[in-house]
Amino acid sequence: MPMDLIDVRRRLLKVQNVVGEDTQQVKVLNEIAFPVQIKKIWDTMAEVRDVELNVIRDKVIVEGIIHKQIFYVADEDRVVDGVKYQRGEVFELSVDEPFIAHVDIPGTRPDHHVQVSTRIEFIGYDDLQPESDAVPDIWRQTLILEVFVKVTETVQMEVVVDVVAPSLDIDVIKELLKVQSVVGEDVNQVSIVRDIDFERRVKKIRNIQTKIENVETTIAPDKIIVEGTLHKQIFYVEQGTNRVFEQTVRENFTAFVDIPGARPGQNVQVTTEVEFVDIDLRNGNDQEGFERGRQTAVLAVFAKVTEELQIDVVVDVIGDVEVFKELLKVESVISEDSKQVTVRNDVALVRPAKKIAETDAEVNINFTETKIIDDKVIVVGEVKKQIFYVDLCTGGLFEQGVIEQFTTFVDLPGARPDMNLQITGEVEFVEFTPPKYPEDVCKLFEWHKFDPEKFPWKQTAVVQIFVKVTETLQLDVVTDVVAVTPTPTPTPTPTPTPTPTPTPTPTPKPTECPPGSTIKIVYIQSGDTLWKLAQKYHTTVDTLLRLNPGIDPQNLQIGQKIRVPCVPDRPLG
């Protein structure tokens, strides 16, 4: 009996799946030579820069530079390379060290997307005795670096969300999926050109260190607007003295990334990298030095827009239909929430401070200690701050780094330890309350009798933590449904009997294809071969083999079902 057309309703799913994630600790050992004898190491500010990734099969190789600013207390009065060191004063030494980490993540492929987070867990020093008087003091440094790697892939599949066939007795089975659907992603390059006036005449540029700060995103229709600040530390050699100086430059930038389908209210992830930076010296010559430089920086801004999607997908159709399925691997969102954390701490500035001029702050998550327990996520992290303050006695601008630990928890019903975790943190607010210095504080500092611990600045920071827990689901989903009409098994022709007029039962004609069908089911009869069936149904043997995977052409069984193309019958020859 002909069947009505089946209405198969489909939707394109584009989802991001977690291939795997892992955390590795890297130990970096180094011997650091100081220009003079030192009493102690006061503090160390360290950060990871210039991270490069090499993604190979089942592995991610992470390389980069650990930049350290070591603040130390001199233990002797001495002049070295034009710098006057005084006992008891604090000085700074910059050190760059390369590192490499190999993180094994099975299933990783070069075309997958990789996210990397680094965090310096520990820095320690041991004083060593120098082997010669040429090096006044050597300390052995031990640094532990945490490298967290997450690999994801974007999968696109057209799934069936409903099947409507009023004339058929079918049962459509569905399952609710809550996923992050990828709206789109793209990258855009931004060039920043600016003229820089130097404070001293420049012989040459020694080094340029960059980082991106204060990134803010806005979603407009079909477009992502990214705003931020390019922070540069330019190290240059002064003409005439050959002394190295540093000049800090900050430049705001705006980038636009076109993503069709992007709408306000959706989720956006943005990463920004400095691909190139250079300074062309101007207004001068090689003999007298240069007063100005034209800086060119190229930024790569990557944006991905996702939306939370809840849809019912068809996982099976029971009835007289042919169902085609594929395995879909998706990240199902279990729960998500955000929480504010207030971090209070006393900050001991090494110099008497008139005011805090600026504070750069960022949040680093400790992925080693952060964990999921039942219905809850315990978040361990740190707030890393660079505090720029005005000296009370000289009016000079100084910098000091501070790292503050915090622990909090976020209630997420349904969360379990074996699920996937996504965490982001942002410092929303920082406030300082000054101490009350004595009137002779500048004399105390000059006489090396100023104790910073007795005059701490009260600091309050508000941190916003966002946590999302997902579960990797593997589901056989329906990708197509076609109507089929089985050809009835023909009645066997009776053996002729010695009657005057034997009448054999006619072989039934194959049922014609119902409207909208692409294949139909027939039954193997005595004497059938794939070649004969191909001739009969106007197709090829290769097509029959493709439609019937696993069939043995040399062992066809009478009554065996076989799929054939739904082509209207026409006379042969």
Give a verbal description of the structure:
- The protein has four domains: 1-170, no CATH class; 185-308, no CATH class; 334-470, no CATH class; 487-573, Roll (Membrane-bound Lytic Murein Transglycosylase D, Chain A).
- Helices cover 3% and strands 67% of the residues.
- The protein contains three helices and 22 strands.
- A hairpin with a 2-residue loop joins strand 2 and strand 3 (59-74).
- The longest helix has 7 residues, at 530-536.
- The relative contact order is 0.13.
Biggest beta sheet attributes: 5 strands, antiparallel
Mean pLDDT, to the nearest integer, reads 84
Rounded to the nearest angstrom, the distance between the terminal CA atoms is: 29 Å
Structural class: mainly beta
Shape summary: elongated
Short description:
The protein has three helices and 22 strands.
How is the secondary structure organized here?
Elements: E1 7-34, E2 38-56, E3 59-74, E4 78-80, E5 83-85, E6 90-104, E7 113-128, E8 137-164, E9 171-220, E10 223-238, E11 244-258, E12 267-285, E13 289-318, E14 321-347, E15 353-365, E16 371-373, E17 376-391, E18 397-411, E19 420-433, H1 441-446, E20 457-483, E21 519-523, H2 530-536, H3 541-547, E22 561-565
Antiparallel strand pairs: 1-8, 2-3, 3-6, 4-5, 7-8, 9-10, 9-13, 10-11, 12-13, 14-20, 15-17, 16-17, 17-18, 19-20, 21-22
